[in-house]
Design brief:
Blueprint (H helix, E strand, L loop, with lengths): L1 E6 L10 H15 L8 E3 L3 E5 L6 H8 L7 E8 L3 H13 L6 E7 L8 H16 L10 E7 L4 E4 L3 E2 L10 E6 L5 H10 L3 E9 L7 H14 L5 E7 L1 H10 L5 H19 L4 E3 L12 H8 L6 E2 L7 H11 L2 H4 L21 H8 L4 H10 L2 E5 L24
Parallel strand pairs: 5-6, 9-10, 9-12, 10-11, 12-13
Antiparallel strand pairs: 1-3, 1-4, 2-3, 4-7, 4-8, 6-7, 11-14
Helix pairs in contact: 3-4, 5-10, 7-8, 8-9, 8-13
């Protein structure tokens, strides 16, 4: 019988509240492994023991377990009786599948009633493998690290530990709405906040039919990839062309980008309220572009009705790109598109517009009506492994949602 042995670290520091985080972690495991019928999930110490079904390929088990925020590391293990002969046989089978490699054995005896100490188990099992397979031992940098965990009821033998996503279980810290541009930064920002336990939905602002649907299509694909880390998520596609036409017709060129951003904050705040989200998340990085100077970030945030989290604020572009490549969103983000942020953009946007100047520019616009129409015309796309790994089609009818209810 195969088991996922998932180990957590930060959750273990939560004291009397630890059980809440562990329960959220269990729920997330079932969501991310949707489509496969996991067996019982049992906690023992700072680990979860999950019975894996026979129809789950090992590669799929590894890939999905690596997405589960809250797991510091994990193993795909065989459960055996707590007996030295069973340890030897299980380890021999695992090592036999990797002929010619160097190896080491790492044992951890959590159940102190077991007669042998951890070093004694390691020596006995290691010597047995050498005698049977002739493999060489390398304690410093082995190609195969065999792990034996001796617990109270059973023991677990695996071919080493794999890195997990770490952090806190998604949903343990509340709900947020992430602004997803289709560029490199915003998916990384969303992913980092998931790692701090924030469950996310997404909003993408598009200017179709003034431009093609390319940015919308990218947003659908990016949101689908991010949703794999939390089971399911909703992407809201907010029309922005009417807002941009109104701003271009009535606002000085230098202020247009800032007004676009302020409208996005207002629309996102209303959508967040309807989604019962508590914060907004953006991919802004201090000083990266004109709209992200300190003054302009403050001017943008004043239009929001909720706190704005900016997890990339102190990261440079190279760091962000490296994380995007690791996440697998970089190749999607660099696909050519025509997003609303590049439409009607002036050559020299304001770097530090005064609030009175911005308020004066907005006084000539029907701000509340423009926000309300964008919210009412939002399209909704539901995605994630709990709904099937493939994203739903983007071409959905516009949704009109009465105030006070959720989208």
């Amino acid at each position: 019988m195969r088991y996922l042995v998932g180990r957590y670290h930060e959750i273990n520091l939560k004291g009397n509240n630890r059980w809440r985080f562990v329960q959220q972690l269990k729920r997330n495991l079932r969501l991310i492994f949707a489509g496969y019928r996991l067996g019982p999930i049992r906690g023992e110490g700072a680990r979860l023991l999950v019975e894996l079904p026979d129809d789950l390929p090992e590669a799929a088990a590894v890939e999905r377990a690596a997405r589960v925020f809250g797991l510091q590391n994990f193993s795909i293990a065989r459960r055996v009786a707590s007996d030295l002969d069973h340890f030897k046989q299980a380890a021999l089978e695992l090592a036999g599948a990797r002929p010619g490699v160097t190896f080491r054995v790492a044992a951890r005896r959590s159940d102190k009633r077991f007669a042998l100490t951890s070093p004694e188990i390691e020596r006995e099992v290691g010597a047995f493998i050498v005698s049977r397979l002739g493999l060489k031992v390398d304690l410093a940098n082995p190609e195969l690290a065999l792990t034996i965990e001796v617990l109270a009821a059973h023991s677990y033998v695996s071919a080493g530990k794999l890195s997990g996503a770490g952090g806190l279980p998604v949903g343990a810290s509340g709900r947020g709405l992430a602004l997803l541009s289709g560029g490199i930064d915003s998916p990384v920002a969303a992913w980092r906040m998931m790692g701090r336990g924030l469950a996310l939905d997404f909003v993408h602002f598009h200017s179709h039919p003034l431009v093609s649907t390319a940015s919308r299509d990218k947003a659908v694909e990016l949101a689908a990839r991010l949703a794999r880390y939390q089971g399911s998520a909703t992407l809201l596609l907010a029309p922005f062309a009417e807002v941009q036409r109104a701003v271009v017709a009535r606002v000085p060129r230098a202020l247009r980008v800032l007004l676009y951003r302020r409208f996005m904050m207002r629309i996102a705040s209303e959508l967040a309220r309807l989604r019962r989200a508590q914060v907004l998340v953006t991919g802004e990085s201090l000083g990266q572009v004109a709209s992200q100077t300190l003054d302009n970030l403050a001017a943008t945030e004043r239009a929001a009705a909720l706190p704005v989290l900016r997890p990339l604020l102190a990261m440079d572009k190279n760091e962000i790109v490296a994380q995007a490549r690791k996440l697998g969103t970089f190749e999607i983000s660099i696909l050519p598109d025509e997003d609303c942020c590049t439409l009607f953009v002036p050559a020299h946007p304001a770097l530090a517009a005064a609030e009175t100047e911005l308020a004066g520019a907005e006084a000539g616009l029907e701000v509340a009506a423009l926000v309300a129409r964008s919210v009412e015309r939002c399209e909704k796309v539901r995605q994630g492994p709990a709904l099937g790994e493939r994203p739903l089609p983007c071409a959905l009818p516009a949704l009109s949602q009465p105030a006070g209810k959720t989208l």
